Amino acid sequence: MKTKRIGKSLVLGVVFLFIAVVTQFVWTDLAAACGWGQSGGGDYVPQRRDNGGFLAQKSAVTEAQARDIVTSYVKRLNPDLEIGKIKDNGGFYEVEILSADSELVQLLGVDKRSGRLLLLN
């Protein structure tokens, strides 16, 4: 009687472990396909969409594109904020976020290669 319980619990334990391992692989693939779990996610931070090829093969983000990226991000969060000066800082653009009375609120960076936003201060 006792050996049947041990055998049943062992089988159930093995089955549970097998299911856990298999779902880990399946969910990892699904999450990677959706962009879930990556830095910022696809919906949180506006990013350049990669429709094929490597980002290194793509042209760098221009100053106008950086302004568009930051504008759409800021307007979605707080429509009262404005975009100020944009400064080229080598690998990224430094963009000023201003309040309605032209006071500096935040500095954001836009990576030239990927288009991702960087929090600078």
Query: Total number of β-strand segments?
Result: 4
Can you tell me the CATH class of the largest domain?
Alpha Beta
Residue runs with pLDDT of under 50 for 5 or more positions: 40-47
Q: Give the biggest sheet.
A: 4 strands, antiparallel
Q: What's the shape?
A: elongated
H and E string: HHHEEEE
**Could you name the CATH topology of the largest domain?**
Nuclear Transport Factor 2, Chain: A
N-C termini distance: 67 Å
Mean pLDDT: 76
> Which structural category do the helix and sheet elements fall into?
alpha+beta
Explain this structure.
The protein is an alpha+beta fold and 121 residues long. The chain folds into two domains: 1-34; 41-119, Nuclear Transport Factor 2, Chain: A. It has three helices and four strands. The protein has helices at residues 2-34, 41-44, 63-77; strands at 82-88, 92-98, 104-111, 117-119. A four-stranded antiparallel sheet has the order 1-2-3-4, with helices on one face.
Break the fold down into its secondary structure elements and pairings:
Layout: H1 2-34, H2 41-44, H3 63-77, E1 82-88, E2 92-98, E3 104-111, E4 117-119
Antiparallel strand pairs: 1-2, 2-3, 3-4
